[in-house]
Amino acid sequence: MTHFHLRSVPRAATLEVLADEWFDPGAAQGDLRVLIEANDGGASTVTGAIQVGFQIGKSIPRYWYYVGQVAYRSDEPMLARKDRVLLLGNDFTGAHELYGVRVAKPDDQALLDALLIGTLALIPSGADVPGQAAPVVLEIPGSGHAERAPFWAGIGRHLYPHPFPELTRNAHLEWESHLAALLPRQPLVVSLLEKDTQMAIGAPAEDAIYLRDAAVRCGFRKSRQVRICDGGPVFEAPTALFRFAAGTAIETSACIEQGQRCVIRTEDRRDAWIVEAERVTGGIAVAPASATIRDSLRDGAWAYSFY
Amino acid sequence: MTEPPRTLARLRLRPIQLDDLDALLAFAEASAHGLTTLPSNLQRLRGHIERSLHSFATTDVSGEESYLFVLEDLEADRVVGVSGISAQAGLSDRFYSYRNEFVVHRSKALEYSNRIHTLHLCHDLTGATVLTSFYIEPKYRSGLAPHLLSRARLLYIGQHPERFSDRIISENPGLADDSGRCPFWEAVGRRFFNMDYPAVEALAGGRSKSFIADMMPTSPVYVPMLPGQAQWAIGQLHPEAELPFSILVDEGFEADAYVDIFDGGPIVVSRPAQLRTITRMSIGRVAQSTPHDRRATASLRLVGNTSRSNFQAALAIVSQTTRGLAMPDSCAADIGLGVGDLICTSDLTVRTKEIA
C-alpha cells in the first residue's frame, strides 16, 4: 500500500539537487515549494512537485475575467433571455495559489490527489480554518497556446496584436498585469464573441485535463473566473476540508486494506503524509508498510485529519 | 453654384391625403429593406395617413405628431415620392441608437496604446425630430425632385419650430442584400434574436421596436471583436440611401456620432438652426413677375406657402424685387399663392449635374 510524503523545500536549500528539476526558478521568494514522494514500503522516490503562492495579487496585481450573467426581458412582446458577460477584475487578490504542478505520471490519480490534498494541509490558514481561510485557487491552462489560444484570438489579440514573450513565472505575472491595462474594463458580451472564443471560456487545454480531473476529484469547485489570456478555468479548493486533531500515537495494523484517507502533518507544516488509516485511541493505525512515518514524527508534534 | 435653370419641372410637395393610399402602398412595396417606417400593409398605411392628417390639423401638439408629405408631378398628374417628419422620436417609449465612442487603453510598461472603437447603446436621440419615410420613384432620382422632397420638410420645420425638437435626426438604411440580410445584424442583433431582421420586424408587428433594444446588451460593443464584415458595415449606407443621405449631409447634418442598432446605418444629426435650408429661409410677399425679373437677382429657391395645415412647396426661379419676391405665376398658383400672399423661400444650391 503506497503512501505519499510531501515535504516543503526551503528556498535556502540550494543543495536540494531536485529543486532545479522540479521547480520554476522564476517563482517569488516567499512561495512554498513542495515535493511529493511515493513510498510503497521500499525506497522513496520524488514523483512530483507543486508550488504555492501566498496572498497573490498584492505585490503584482493579478487579473481574471469573471463570467457573469445578464438577463434581458421585454414585456411587449413577452421575451426573455440570458447571456454571459466577462468582467475584468482582481477577484482572487489575497488568495493563495497552487501552481507549477509537475508529476512523473499525469495518469497517476492517487499521486495527483495526494499532491493537491497534501499541499492544502501544509498551507497556513488553508483548508482547515472554517470561515477564515483565504481561498486557495488553482488555475488550469486554457485551450490553445499563448497568442494562438482561441480565447486570446477573440479578445486580447484585437487589443494587443503581439506575440507573447517567453518568461519565467514572476516575470510573466508582471507582464500579464501590464497586459490587463489594455483589456476592456466594461463587461464583454459573450454572444458577440467568435464561436471558438465562446467555446474556450473555462475550457482546459487538452494536456491539462488530467489536472482539471484531479481538482474535481479532490473537491475543488470550478469558480466563475477564467484566465485572461487563454480563458482557462480557475478552481477553488474546498474549504473546511480538514478537521485536524493532535496525534499521540501511530500504530500499525496488518488489517488495513481499505482504510480511510488520512492526512498527517507536522506542527511546523514542513511535512505531510497521505496515507490510508483507521482511527484508534489516541491516534491512528496505518499499514505496516507505512510504519516509517512514525519515525519521522517521533521528535515533534503532529496532527491528523481524515477527509 | 451655378446659373439657375431656365425651366423647372412642375413638382409640388403637399401633405398626404387618403387618396394617396395606393401610391403609398406602391412606394412601401418598392422600398428596399430598411425603409421600415413604411410597412407594406394597407391598413397600417391608412393609419399612417390618418395620423398625418391629424398632425397637420391639430393645434394641440403633444410631440407624437407624424407628418407625411407626397411629391406630385403636376404635369403627369400623379404622386411620385413620399417623405415624412416624426415630431419627437421615441416619445412614448425610448429611441435607441449606438453611439460611436473611442477609448484609449494604454500600458506604459508594454509601451503600447490602443484606440478602440466601441458602440454604446444609448437613448441620446430620444425626443429628437426624425426625418422619415423618404422614397422617390427611380425616374425622378436625378434632377431637383429629391431636393424638393427632402428639403421642403425643413422649410416646414423652420416655419413651425414650436412643433419640433431643437435636434433633428434621420436614420439611413445600412448595408443589406436583396433578401434583407445585413452583416451588422448578423454579427450583433442575430446573436440575441436568432432570426433574420425582416422576421424581427414582423414580430414587432407595427409596435415600437424598442423591445429589440430591450433584449440587447447595454454594455459597450467592442468593434474590433466583431467579424470584419460587420465592422466594415458600421456607418455604411445602403446604396439606395445614398441620394437622400447626400442631400442631408449637404444640408449640414453630421453622420459621425450615431448608428442604427439594427443595421449599423448612419444616423445623421443636426440642430435646425444649423441647416442650410433653415438658415437661408426668409418670408416675403409674392410679387407680380415681369420679364425684367429674370436677371441678376434670380435664383433657384425652395418656395412654400405659410400654411400649417396645408403646407405646399415647390421649386422656383425667384427674383428679389422692390415689389417683393417675383416668380412665375403658375408656380405660385401651384402652391396656392397669389400676388401679395406671404411666401417662405430658401436658396437652393445644388451641383450642376443635379440640375440637368
Notes on the structure:
The complex is a heterodimer of chains A (307) and B (356). Chain A has 307 residues and is an alpha+beta fold. Among the domains of chain A are: 54-95 and 135-241, no CATH class; 245-306, no CATH class. Chain A has eight helices and 16 strands. Chain A has a 16-stranded mixed β-sheet that branches. By secondary structure, chain B is of the alpha+beta class. Chain B contains twelve helices and 15 strands. In chain B, helix 1 packs across helix 2. The two termini of chain B are 14 Å apart. Classes of the chains: A alpha+beta (307), B alpha+beta (356).
Tell me the radius of gyration of chain B: 22 Å
**Mean pLDDT of chain B, as a whole number?**
89
Order of helices and strands of chain B: EHHEEEEEHEHHHHEHHEEHEEEEHEH
| Low-confidence segments of chain B | none
Provide the spatial order of strands within the biggest beta sheet of chain B: 1-2-3-6-7-10-9-4-5-8
Strand fraction of chain A equals 25-35%
Tell me the number of strands of chain B: 15
Detail the poorly predicted runs of chain A: none
What can be said about this structure in brief?
Chain A is 20% helix and 33% strand. The model of chain A has no long low-confidence stretch (mean pLDDT 88). In chain A, α2 packs across α7.
